[in-house]
Write a structure and sequence with these properties.
Two copies of one chain form a homodimer. By secondary structure, chain A is mostly helical. Chain A has 25 helices and eight strands. The first copy, chain A, has a six-stranded mixed β-sheet. Chain A has a two-stranded antiparallel sheet with strand order 1-2. The first copy, chain A, is elongated and about 95 Å long.
Chain lengths: ~575, ~575
């Protein structure tokens, strides 16, 4: 270990130094090809997510340049593609909506400030090594939240797809509003949107097998199928231009300014910062979790690793760079990263090339997007986000564990009914409460000796030998304040119902910790048993637990003994059994 | 089991039916003697606690009649004495202070409403069997909270003792205010208060041994020592009357109305109810915890039991009765219950007799209290509450567990600086967060075979045999969402650093639960290991955990096997070791 190691632990390391040294021509080619494919896909997606967030479409392009560069230098994943993503864009819209009107310059300024705060928070969490906090988002909560977000986004896109002015605070209100505006559906808009949705679904599931049946190699067929959205965009744009659908009331993307991302600054308004703090924190955590899970899945496929705390630093820097270049909150996206990976990207240099591609597109291609119908963009988002909705988790958790099922359903419903921020908070609070509740009712098994062995098993599950004078209890949980009384109750109950009892032995093999409250309880149990003429013994106490008990008076005052194994305890206390 | 049992579970049982049947003359005598002693002690205490709560002194007497009767019928403890207690009175003052000015009729009305809400909450918790919620108040939090409350009350009594007008929101402000008003100390008041404090401390520690040395029997000496406060009250009242100290500025209790407790109704004001809800809940929980711990300690001494859910019903009814008879929130008090117990009370009938005693006193004795100096009452409270302050818990938890120490200190400081309600909330939130944090970083030990046995121990603590091809890990915690990633990280790290590794075996003897998130993690670990040419095995999986895993695909897709014992696993996978 070099002497420089100590301070390195507390500074962000630069992954670019690792992969940069081994960079060669083959890698360059792979990265460049991947970058071209990702650029084609990102162009429309960036516009669409900016509009989902309530921002002008070009802001989506701005948010896809600087963050990619920063992540390429600082990120620990080789293939993660950073930029606007669906769920974070939705959360951005929810957060800014309370402070400014969508489409105004003030709204954009708040978006920039939100990216800035989110960047600061991520960076701080990374430098303070707080990446572990994301572990408190359980899988059921994430799943319920992402599914609900998918439904929320889908409902909001239906509005654009049908050309109506529906609105609502919650998913349910939005759906009701859509239904009540059905008479105002703009026919031509729907005639563009609906077939596009059908086409995109067919591209996803039917095109690739068809191409393969027609003799195309799998890899190429895959690439062509992935280009489906681009085809939909090109065709609908050309039709709209040729037939002047805009003149017939179809909403188009319109004029997107040509040019480089602008230099911008966040608003220096402490009151606003205070109000944006919680939304920024939630956006940061959700973005981080999405990014890390994508990154980890892809890294594992090539036996690479990603460093959560390093990811925080990289994502934080990316968001800060978004704030200074006219962007909005970004994170590592699932779809774009998978495309990047599948297209053969080897290093973060692919991200740099993608950034160059987007910059060129911003400079030269935006006029071509003028006639792109908004309904087409809505269709691409709709199809993309519906794949986020995972109904199987409901059945899966229902059969596995009711508490996990409850967490999924509560998060899902709360997000649909109360919005993204409240939904997430409800989900996290509930899952933590359920976890505490579960550990507060520990499984306590009375155990007996399995004949011919030195093993002890639950008397209710196995045929085992027990003594009427000795009660053997195995507590299947660490003892802490919330469950210590459950043990007291169990022992009180046993002592009250078994007059012949002389010894209580706690088999502590599953007790990983005893906190101060539980120690008090053990002392109280011992005192009560002693008063009733019984003795309390412990067996199989773990090393760390024993170390700590030795610092107290408990072991001296204990009425019984501490046995190394439970068999020794039974052998000594009731020789007729063991 | 009788058929009536099922519905009985959901109805409050009536403990009075149990002890009432066996009631005889001996029990009557014991109970009557105890009641006389408790009445003498309760009289001044009830006045003092009512004044601590900011209420007229007679309210303390009213709160000591009906609640005792209700508890006698419904309570499961034989000797608990219900009435005004120090900490709950302090919390009552804090809760009402935001809604009315102390000493006004409006203030009293809010106190009655608070007792009503607290009673409803306790009753509801009892009927819904939510008594377990009190378990989430850890011992360090209770200890820190009670100590801080003791200090807060002591500081507030110093004011009365010195006859100054100090005031402050927090303990620290109050102490500063006291110090800045030192020039306004009323000499004669302090000349009554200070010697009384000294006398009471001496009575506590020095009088009983002295009486015993003088040849008095221990029991009698104990009784005389307990009567010390009554002596202080009689003497100071007589002196104040005889020397007309009131004319010289000494504040006295003054005219306490004679008469039965009045019939009162809570305020029917939904806005007020909403604002009082949280304080009422905190008062209920604290009162319940205090009551149950006193009840349990005393019940255990006579090998009786108390039922927490029944206690909730009894305390709830007691508080409701307080609300309808002009009282304020009550609970089972420590001092009065111990006196009741020591004086020989056998059944709750002692409580009924005490209620009769207090009623007689309210009817006939209150004029005698006119000249009682408030400083004398303050002295009795001061001496009583200082015994609540427990500094030893700091040293004890410091040496036992830093997280428990942190919980004590945080609760103590938060209560002193922010007040009783915020202090309690901070303490509970912190202790829960610490518990979650602790379980999110599980102890994961690499284990090896102890030579000549089938036992496996931590390689860092014992000399054991291990194979380079097999990694044996024992996770000392149930696997759930917050710690599943720690296991992933640990295994990733081991696999990356040991190229010769072929098998990873998880010894699951301490894993009491695996939630849906942790199951995902295990699947991900298995997939990654399989991708890297390794296999994942489990050993010693507990019955309940195995039952649940069997409902999933995990066991079928697992790359390795599930072994009954860890020895079997090692014996098969690395015969050179086992």
């Amino acid at each position: 270990m070099k002497p420089s190691h100590a301070w390195r632990q507390w500074l962000p390391s630069l992954p670019v130094l690792q992969w940069g040294r081994a960079y060669d021509r083959d890698t360059l080619l792979s990265d460049a090809v991947a970058a071209l494919i990702v650029t084609l896909m990102l162009m429309p997606q960036s516009l669409a997510y900016a509009m989902l967030a309530g921002l002008p479409p070009e802001v989506g392009l701005y948010a896809s340049v600087a963050p990619l560069l920063l992540y390429a230098v600082l990120g620990s994943s080789r293939v993660l593609a950073v930029g606007p993503v669906a769920v974070v864009s939705l959360m951005t819209a929810a957060a800014i909506g309370q402070h400014a009107v969508a489409g105004t310059p003030a709204y954009w300024a708040v978006a920039i400030t939100l990216a800035f705060l989110s960047g600061l928070l991520l960076l701080a969490m990374g430098l303070l090594r707080l990446g572990f906090l994301a572990n408190f988002l359980s899988h059921p909560v994430i799943s319920g939240f992402i599914s609900a977000s998918g439904l929320l986004i889908a409902a909001s896109q239906l509005k654009t797809l049908m050309g109506v002015q529906a609105q609502g605070q919650s998913f349910f209100e939005l759906v009701l509003s859509l239904l009540s505006h059905l008479d105002q559906v703009h026919g031509l808009t729907l005639a563009i949107g609906a077939p596009t949705v059908a086409f995109l679904f067919w591209v996803r599931s039917g095109l690739k097998p068809l191409l393969q049946r027609l003799g195309m190699r799998e890899r190429l067929a895959d690439g062509v199928a992935k280009a489906g959205p681009v085809a939909a965009i090109v065709v609908s744009t050309l039709l709209t231009w040729a037939l002047d659908w805009q003149g017939q009331g179809v909403k188009v993307v319109g004029a997107v300014p040509q040019g480089l991302p602008p230099f911008t600054l966040p608003l220096w308004d402490l009151d606003l910062w205070q109000e944006l703090l919680v939304p920024a924190l939630l956006i940061s955590v959700v973005g981080f979790v999405e990014s890390v899970s994508v990154g980890q899945t892809l890294a594992a496929k090539r036996r690479q690793r990603i460093e959560p705390d390093q990811e925080l630093v990289a994502l934080g820097s990316s968001n800060l760079s978004a704030a200074f270049t006219g962007g909005f909150p970004v994170t590592g996206g699932f779809a774009r990263s998978v495309v990047n990976f599948d297209a053969g990207a080897q290093t973060p240099a692919a991200g740099v090339f993608t950034a160059v591609g987007i910059t060129l597109a911003s400079l030269f291609l935006t006029p071509a997007l003028y006639h792109l119908p908004q309904a087409t963009l809505a269709a691409t988002i709709l199809v993309a986000v519906l794949s986020l909705v995972d109904w199987r988790i409901l059945r899966k958790t229902w059969s596995y564990a009711k508490s996990d099922f409850l967490a999924v359903v509560a998060t899902l419903l709360a997000t649909l009914a109360l919005g993204v921020e409240s939904g997430l908070v409800v989900g996290v609070a509930l899952s933590l409460a359920l976890q505490l509740y579960r550990t507060s009712r520990p499984h306590i098994a009375e155990v007996g000796l399995v004949a011919g062995t030195e093993h002890f098993r639950n008397v209710q599950r196995h045929t085992v030998a027990v003594s009427a004078r000795v009660l053997s209890l195995r507590v299947d949980e660490s003892l802490y304040f919330a469950n210590a009384r459950a043990l007291e109750d169990r022992i009180n109950q046993a002592v009250a119902s078994r007059p012949e009892l002389e010894h209580v032995v706690l088999q502590c093999s599953a007790i990983n910790d005893i906190d101060a409250s539980a120690l008090e309880s053990l002392e109280a149990i011992d005192l009560r048993l002693r008063g009733a003429g019984l003795r309390l013994h412990l067996s199989e106490v773990k090393g760390p637990v024993m170390d700590r008990l030795k610092t107290t008076e408990f072991l001296h005052s204990l009425s019984g003994q501490v046995f190394l194994t439970h068999y020794q305890a039974i052998h000594e206390l009731s020789p007729e059994v063991g």
